Structures are given as structure tokens and as C-alpha cells.
Structures
1.
Amino acid sequence: MHETPLLILAIFVIIALWQAIEWYSKNILFLRKNGIYELYRSIITPRIPYFNALSEDGKKKFIKRVFYFMKDKKFEGREGVIINDEMKILISASAVQLTFGFKNYLLYYFNKIIIYPEEYFFRNELYKGATTKGTVMLSWKNFIEGYADGSDKINLGLHELAHALELDIFFGNNYNVFFASYYDEFRTKAEDEIEKTESTDIANSFLRNYSYTNVHEFFAASVEAFFENPHEFQKAMPRLYLNLCVLMNQDPANSMRNDYTLTPDFTGRLEIPGEEIEKYLKENRTSLNKSWNWSFTAASIGIFIGSMTTSVLCYYTIINLPVLLSIISVVTIVSLFAQYNYYKRNVNDSFPVYLLYSIFGIGVNTMALILLINFLIVMPGEVIYNFKVIGKTIEYDNNNLRDYSVTITMYNEELDNEREVTFKGHSGTPKELNAIKISVSTRDGLFGFPVIKDEVPVYEEE
Ligand SMILES: [Zn+2]
């Protein structure tokens, strides 16, 4: 049965390949085959300059996100609006622009977008848009006007979606962790800014007056200016601009390359002393590091459940320690290499934490899973191994000296495996002390490791 592990590995590789092909055809080919890329592109290009400055890969990523955002939301028309593709695509594109720096971009807390033809009355007041629990409302006319002038710092779509993003972290439970952890930081700074700005300065502020209403409007209006006029913004209010870059994990002024990513030189353009920028970037990292994330959960499961499962199952499975340790090491090393860049940028940038996650979260948990599957799925047919007795110890129960337990250390040459077995009994001389070998009946588990069914002492050489 030595081919079994290889066979299983082959099956796993085939399943993984099949999954990859299926994912590719569902996600990539689907978009291409049905002309979705071209349709979306033709609608977004004339309206959203942000999109046009992206690289080819960036554009594909953008469109894919628009597609999934659209699929996730319900669009409803009011006052005669009949929802069409253009509306759905452009509003989704606005959301994707806002969250382009995030991994988790779907704004899960929101499921409905209501579109009015123009400004609408709500409780006797005229609105261009509003955001409430789970719903974003927009006047289509104002949405389009927001993008028509790309530098007036007014953009209704981005404004309302920025409110939605805020609400998403207050009420939702599935959001971008990094944004959520840095938002508090940003909020404190915004509050200070609002408080310290005199009314005369508000009139001359780079941000429009309305921003100073409260911290939420300050955020939403800053976001509009951030995307519509990043170059002026970074000149007028470099610190706030820097904060927003860190918060949104993108730099709209860096349109020339890397799809608005925060390249190390982005700070060079801002007239802020180097140490201060270092401080901001460090805050960025610490806030990333202090939030609990899935990798900590995985590591904890490995430390407690994974290692316990492994040690319990080792008692019922014949597996040599070097084999056990090499499987854990190989899986850990593969995981270390495969996830390093992703982990450092998006999860946590401390190497010891990463190592701990790789060893326990991936290595130990995978080992536990292999042993568990091997234990649960056994092949038919029994295999018996004879183990030579190489040591015996006897212990009596302190409360009742008639009860004993005999622990026998045994060894099998073929398997090169040494293990212990304990027999309990009461009264008389423990006959197990006379055993010359132990007959171990096993069944091969799915991964080829023998699973122990029974252990019987043999007293005489046949
Ligand atoms: Zn607002």
C-alpha cells in the first residue's frame, strides 16, 4: 500500500486543478466571453477619469469588481426612473473607485441603491442624496454632474458612498479591517481639525464649508476632494491628504503608475518632514497589527485544537516522529513562501507572528487534518504487525493495590516504529509481563498510515 499516499496526492492535485479551471472559466472567461469587459469599459471610460488612468491589469481588476458589486446590490428606481445598465455600472464603479485600495470592497452592509431622476423631497426637504442603514439614495442628475466636472471637488456618488463606507464599519460585520482600525485615528484628527478651524478660515478652506458640519461630512467631503483634486489637496492640506492616503490605502495623485498604490516616494511630494511621514506609516502598520484577524484564529486553533488532535491521533496511528515533523515542516515552508507578500501587506507585518501562523495555523492544522482523514477513512483488509517487546513497567493503583497497569515499550523493524501500549488489569500476577511480542492489527488509512484496531500480547514464540 506504499503507493497510496502518492495516489491521494495525485487526486488532490487533480481536484485543485479542476477547481482552478472552474474558477477561471466562471470568473475570467465569463466576463470576456459575454462582452462584459467591453460593455463596462465603453460605459465607464467617458465618465470616470479615475478609471482611464489605470493600467490594463488595473482596468480588468476594476471591471471585475464593478461586476461583483453590481451583482451584490439591488437597484430600484423612484419617481419614474427605469433602472438601466448605465446607472448600475456607473454607481458600482463609483463604489469600486472609493474602495479600490481595499481587499474587502463590497460594502456588505448595503444591499439597496435607490435612484431618483433629480433632487427629491423627503420630509419636506430637498435632497440630492442620502445614506441610511442598508440603503443609498441618489439623484441621477446630480450623480452624473458629480463626474461631469472632474475637479470641482463635488461628487455626489463618492460622497454618499463614503457615508456608506462609514456606516458599514459601524453596523456591518464584514468590512475592510484595516480601514476600520485606522478610521478611529482619522476621526480624532478630523475632530481636532473641525474644532481648531476658525469660522473665517473655514470660508477660505480648501475643503468646502459644508465639510465642517460634523465629522461624517468632513470625511465624505474630504473623500470627494481627495479623488477630484488630489494635487491641489496635497498642496493645501498635506497632512490630511496623507491621512486619507493611509486610510483609503491609495494615492489618487499617483495616477501615472502602479494604479494609485502608495509607492514609497509618494510622501516625497508632500512638504512634511520625513520623521512625521515615518510616524504616519508606522501608525498605518501598527493599526494593521493590532487588529485581530483570521490568521490569529487559525494559529489559535492550531495551538489548541490542532496539536491536541495530532497527539491523540498519533496514539491510534502508526507514524514515525520524523515523518510527522517533516510533513509539518514542508507544509509550513511552502506556506511561508506562498503567502509572505500578501500577508505582510494585508494582514500583519511582524515576521514572528507570520511564522507562528504558518507553523500552527497551516502546518499543525494540516497535519491534524491529514491524520483525521486517515483515521476516518480506512481501507478494507486487516494488516497485522508484530512488535518486539523491548521494555516493561508496572504501576499499581495507590487506592487499590490489586489494580495494575502494565506499560510495554515495543518496536517493529519493518516500520522502524517504537511505541507504547498499556494494559490494565486487577488481581493476580500481571500476565502481560510475560509477553514476548505484541500483535498489532491495523487497517491502512486513506493516506497510507496504519490505523490501530487492536493490540494483543503474545506469550510464546509460535
Ligand atoms: Zn453627507
2.
Amino acid sequence: MGCVSTSRNRAKRTRRVRTKTPEHLVCDVCGQPISRGLGPQRFRVYIRPYDRPSTIINPHGEPADYTNYSPHIGNERLTLANCAIFIRQVAKKGEWVMALTSTEYGPVRKVSFIAHIDDVICRRTYAESYDKARLDNHYNWDEGRFVNIPNGYHFDPKEIEQDQSCCRVLLSRKFKAFGPNTGQELPAQRREILKHFRAKHAINQRVFDNEIGAILFDELDGPTYHF
Ligand SMILES: [Zn+2]
């Protein structure tokens, strides 16, 4: 009757349980998955290598000649709705997301954007509440599932699957954006942040002091958007 549980098995089970965060696995709004279980949701600042031209805004605050897709900036919001699944899975309201330029654009990686997360909403809410003119708002909620609307960005089944593996959309009303390849150099006293990046295309998340996002935001010299 019963199974024999060795101490080694118990240790394995304990570890497995500790790496799950059940409250983040399924969305209350759409019932779709939020997370595949990335471990403790304890990150404060997310640093994401920005490895391809995508956004954003030139120094004059006008949309530059980029796709402006991820993040999308428009109508007083910066949104991360697609790709970026590691960040979308774990970022919480009140935290900061920062992206760096790729080493393709120079040996010293710079800040592409830094954004205060003012809200985290389900993609269904995003689809139903926000203008479809937003380039990253290209999923409709239809009879219990998300349907991709033809768009110029994500149409490959793999991209769609990745987008839909996490329904969370991050919204920011307070951000600084420097462009995907020009960027803004980190202040000298913050350069140690760069050493936490393993490789050009690796996605990294890093625990920082609670206040570091706000400090960085103030220290970075560039166009500020606060709506
Ligand atoms: Zn959802």
C-alpha cells in the first residue's frame, strides 16, 4: 500500500514546488496561460536586450523610421503586448522595464527605453478597450480564444504561439525612449548593470534594489514621457 518516499525524492518534490508560482499560471480574465512557471516572481527591474530595430521615437519626440511594434508607443502609452514573454510573465504594476541596445550597434550597450509599468492587463481587455490602430493590438477575443488579425508584424504560427503563451500586456505612461539602436549611455556609476548580460541575444532578468528603476529614470538624460 503506499509508496516509499526516500529523502532524495522528497527533496526533489520540494524543489519542484518551490519553482512554481501557481497564482501566475492562468489568467482570471481569459483563462489562458500567463506563465509556464519561471520561478519566484521577485524581480524588480527587468533588463531586456533589445536585439533588433523595432521602435521608437527620435530625439524630437516624433515617431522615427522604425516599426514601432514592440514596444509600441502611441497615444500616450508605451505597451509591451507581444514577444518579450519573459518580461510580460513576471513584471508587475509599479515596477520598471528597461531595454538595452544590441552589441550590433556598438560595443557599449546603451539604454533603448526605460518604462514604469503603470498597469498590467489581460490581452482580452487590451483587445476590447484599446484602439486597434495600436500596432501591437492585433488579436481579437472571439468565442473563448484569441484570433490574430492580419498585420504586418506577427503572422508566423510560432510568433503567434509565443505571443499567446502569455496574455499579459504591460502599459506604461511614464517612460524615456531613446531608439532601438542609438540609445542612451548608462551613467558611469550604473555601468555595472551591463555585466549582468550574458550574451547579445540572451534574455536576462535581474534583481535590483527596489528604487533603482526610479533612480535610473532620473539619471538618464533624454526625452521624458509622463502622461
Ligand atoms: Zn488573460
